[in-house]
Amino acid sequence: MDMIAELSKEFRLNQQHVGNMIALIDDGNTIPFIARYRKEMTGSCDDQVLRELSDRLQYLRNLEKRKEEILESIAVQGKMTDALSLSVQNAKTLAEAEDLYRPYRPKRRTRATIAQEKGLRPLADLIMAQTQRGTTLEKLAAPYVNTEKGVESWEDAVQGAQDILAEEISDDAEMRKKLRQIIRRDGLVVSRAVQENPVYEMYAEYSEPVGKIPSHRILAIDRGEKEECLKVKLELNDAPALAALCDRFVKPGSVTSACVKEAVEDSWKRLIFPSLEREIRNELTQRAAKQAISMFALNLKPLLLQPPVKDKVIMGFDPAYRTGCKIAVVDATGKVLDTTVVYPTPPHKKTEEAKKELKRLIEKHGVTVISIGNGTASKESEIFVAELLRELEAPVSYMVVSEAGASVYSASKLAAAEFPEFDVSLRSAVSIARRLQDPLAELVKIDPKAIGIGQYQHDMPPAELDSALEGVVENCVNSVGVDLNTASVSLLTHISGLNETVAKNVVAYRDDNGPFQNRSQLKKVARLGPKAYEQCAGFLRIPRGKNILDNTSVHPESYDAVTKLLELLGMKPSDLTMQGVGTVSQQIEKIGWKKAAEACGVGIPTLTDIIAELQKPGRDIRDELPPPLLRTDIMSLSDLKAGMELTGTVRNVTDFGAFIDIGVHQDGLVHISQMSDHFIKHPSDLVKVGDVVTVTVLSVEEAKKRISLTMKRTEAQKAKA
Q1: What is the mean pLDDT of residues 420-425?
Q2: Are residues 706 and 700 in contact, defined by beta-carbon separation less than 8 angstroms?
Q3: What is the pLDDT of residues 314-358, one digit of tens each?
Q4: Is residue 721's pLDDT more than 60?
């Protein structure tokens, strides 16, 4: 297989660019590095396309390897033909290759192999030929009766021959492909309840076409079956499948035709359909898992890239009942200034004492924002904080943040190493404060699966899920860049080209030698070789370094290009400041981009990136996003009425809608049908995690804690607009 040509066709990319991508990947370059610093070679492909191409490349290579194994196995058996060899070589999928190999795959002892051991192969061939006329099946089968081999009668001989034929029919690659298509087109996924469970109430008597069932329902049914609450199967009208099989194998007019038809029916019911049912159900599960993983990754990216609440002293508030609410105050850099425990919630309800203590901390440290975890006792804590803020003279706001994974982090070795003097609960309060302050730096410390977004993440193939999420984390960390002199080991580990060992060495070098003054010092870090330096240097920032370029995403390999650019523009290095040079683009327009790029010795994409950095040195891409929604008031579920218009934050996006935090502790659901007046294919086409949206309450079910919302404008809202 010409993989460059195949990938070029699939991804609709230039063959030269695809060849370059493969060469770069094979040479050990990371996806973030290729996406950012090798744009001329890739045609400016983004990291998502590069990852998909890399995954597809691996699949095709595995396919080629498997096809070689299959060809070798068949050849050893002495059964290879030119036509078979060509068919295997032309197989486009693993399923196609395995179908072709199926008749030659070593089998366990089956009814067919037992029949062959009894010497019934010639009879099977005779029956399948369907050329016999003017005789009877009994006469044809009589010579094969052999009591010593267990063939007691001519009927036994015919049955054994039919077993051989049934297996051969089931192994026919062409028919399996056709029958697979029939099931995909006409089959139904059917579930029935085997025990009552309100979670699976919808699927107690349920059916949906194989080709139309959405991913989230596949995963729900699979889980229900795994928990032994549901019995799940595929159902199909046999007629079209049997008709296709008979057309292929049955030749009318022979005394053996009816016998072949019986073998066909047996093959379909006993071998083919059960096999394809397992295969297609597995296919559905894999498709659903792929979609769920994709959805998880899609949600994770905006969550990690939430705008940080910068330059604020933040109080982290970890709610609880009996054990008290844990409090941690952190400064603008994330340094812990103070901690305490207060008891404003039941059973203690020491509200006034708690207010007094928090007022003291707010005044002492100049707290301007309180970050409240959304776990147990969150609602009571939020009410308490809202009351507290009304009594303060200074302007203080609050935000409820997801504390998913905070307990995982607080009990980890990483947290213990970071805060050895704190108990687990206080570490959690620090994490809650820092999540608002710098979501990316804090969330990378936590296994993405524990962050609480996506659907059915615990049912996903672990390796595939981990790979996808790690890719998202890697992309986000490298897109933002990190401060080389403050970044933690956990953050540095996600930088292109660095592993945990080298990240620890970077921090150790920083501790021993003081802050990095320039990127070149990285070359002195133990085990950080030339390749690792090439991969990581552009993503590491030195805000107060001697060279302003060290605080940008301009790669050291392009520093000479910057010098040439400045000469071309009649500027000096001293003209570069943190305020940026705003007229560069206009000057380049006059010179001409192609001419300027050639003069600098780089391509136009690299020149474009360099100029963007010179205009905004040290920029944070997250600053361009809308800030998080801070609150000063509180509502409860009982306050909600149909028709109320509210502002909320998107917490999670699923295949069927989006969950919105509207400030009542219980997230409301905007079903996909309520997201827009026009058709949308998927909720992610309209919203992403972290978006601030305006919604209207449709209904509230207090007992079930269900809130139905709409993003569609009401007639009154339309009239007002």
Answers
A1: 88
A2: yes
A3: 999 999 999 999 999 999 989 999 999 999 999 999 999 999 999
A4: no
Q: State the DSSP string of 146-170.
A: BGGGTB-SHHHHHHHHHHHHHHHHH
In 284-364, at which residue ranges do the beta strands (DSSP E only) sit?
314-318, 325-330, 336-342
| C-beta separation of 524 from 479 below 8 A | no
Report the side by side order of strands in the sheet with 188-193. Answer: 205-209, 188-193, 230-235
Q: How far apart are CA 22 and CA 15, in angstroms?
A: 11
Residue 189 three-state SS: strand
Question: Nearest-5° angle of CA 112, CA 114, CA 118?
Answer: 110
Could you tell me the domains of the chain?
3-104 (1.10.10.650), 111-187+236-296 (1.10.3500.10), 314-453 (3.30.420.140), 507-624 (1.10.150.310), 637-720 (2.40.50.140)
Question: pLDDT class for 580, splitting at 50, 70, 90?
Answer: low
What is the reported pTM? 0.83
> CB atoms < 10 A from the CB of 694, how many?
12
Quote the CA–CA distance of 124 and 165 in Å, as a whole number: 6
Q: Give dist(CA 10, CA 570) in Å, integer.
A: 46
Condensed to tens digits (0 to 9), the pLDDT of residues 50-94 reads: 999 999 999 999 999 999 999 999 999 999 999 999 999 999 999
Residues 6+ apart with CB under 8 A from 72: none
How would DSSP label each residue in 647-713? EEEEEEE-SSEEEEE-SSSSPEEEEGGGS-SS--S-GGGT--TT-EEEEEEEEEETTTTEEEEE-SP
Question: Locate tokens 């920032």: which residue?
Answer: 541
Residue 416: how many CB atoms within 10 A of its CB? 13
In 359-452, at which residue ranges do the beta strands (DSSP E only) sit?
369-373, 397-401
Among residues 141, 120, 132, 121, the alpha carbon closest in space to that of 257 is found at: 132
Positive or negative: CA dihedral 195, 199, 200, 201: positive
Percent of the chain with pLDDT over 70: 97
Which uninterrupted H or E stretch holds 718? helix 715-720
Contacts of 593 (CB under 8 A, 6+ apart): 604, 607, 608
H helical segments located in 493-603: 500-513, 530-536, 559-568, 584-591, 593-600
Q: What does DSSP say about strands 188-193 and 230-235: parallel, antiparallel, or unpaired? A: antiparallel
| Through-space distance between the first and last CA atoms of the chain, rounded to whole angstroms | 59
Residues 136-150 have a mean pLDDT of: 95
CB atoms within 10 A of CB 562: 23
- Residue 631 is given by DSSP the state B
Please name every residue paired with 370 in a beta bridge, in sequence order, or none if there are none: 315, 398
Residue count of the chain, please give it: 721
Task: Copy the structure tokens of residue 380.
Answer: 């009571």
Q: What b/e string do you get for 121-142 counting C-beta neighbours within 10 Å, with b at 16 or more? A: bebbebbbebebeeeebeebbe
Q: Name the helix (H) or strand (E) containing 464.
A: helix 462-480
- For residue 359, the surrounding DSSP H or E stretch is helix 351-365
Cα–Cα distance measured from residue 695 to residue 424, given in angstroms and rounded to the nearest whole number: 38
In eight-state DSSP terms, residue 23 is H
* 8 A C-beta contact, residue 162 and residue 266: yes
CB 101 within 8 A of CB 94: no
Q: What is the pLDDT of residue 692?
A: 87
Sign of CA dihedral 588, 592, 596, 597: positive
Distance CA 201, CA 204 (A): 5
pLDDT at 418 (0 to 100):
87
Distance of CA 689 to the CA centre of its chain: 14
